[in-house]
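Attaching the record inline, Q. Sequence:
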Amino acid sequence: MKKNYILLTVLILLSGKQAFSLAPPPCLPDIVITPLAGTFGCYSFAADNGVAADPDMYYTWDFGDGTIENGRRLYHCYPPSSFVTNYQVTLTYHSPSCGSPVIQSYFIVLNSPDTSMCIDPVPAYTRAGDSISITPVVSFPEIMFQYHYGDGYWSGFDLTHTYSSCGNYILTVKRWDMNFPGDTCYGYAAVNHIGCSAVTGLQKIADMEEGMIFPVPCREALYVKKGLAVEKAEIRDLSGRTTGSWYYAAPPVSIDVEGLGAGAYILVTTDREGNIRYLWFIKNNE
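Structure, as predicted:
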């Protein structure tokens, strides 16, 4: 089997006056790129600088195939090709504490599949929250499919699946002709940030619309003004775990935060039209 390669030569580009020097930690995250076993063209991308409180929005990956995504840890699958393909993978780390963005580039050399392998294009899907719906492929009746969602669940007919645990997953679509069951093809796609904190839209209280959400001075609570028709509110910690959720029939909304320990949290509100807002706030128990 031909091996795919990740070139170890790393290009570090710093904007501004530091153009030819390395940024000190933690502004230069360590990067680990690992091929995912049992797949073709799928990799795990991880960046770590030792700052656990960094939100995913500080890490922007350009995978070199037109896909750009935020996150400290992601999966990504490249499409098969009949010839060797080079992809330049770029991570831009843009923490406000580091000033100018720090850019690191790697190169992935992806060989064509072996002649003994049948690899389909990356399966297409749409996503709503923690649910995905696979885009059906026009086919003949004798062509059979299986859909493996990466969390242990698979189906021969169910094109929609809802994940129940936080994490990144590989979706595998298996295809074969019932008249020739030995000829099996596989397609792979990455599904990232299931059940985890949102990677975009985090805002500090000072950046929110004036008067939309504000603290209640007489008790430990957040108050949502009447003009914002919140139907659901969640509070998550920075790792994405939900610490509490509430449903409301009508505004105004008061969200109790008395039981929270000191630290930073994310308030996620969903209105009647399905619009989601994210608020990053700090709880101080002094």
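Residues 5-24, 197-211 have pLDDT under 50 and may be disordered. The chain has no helices and 22 strands.

More tomorrow.
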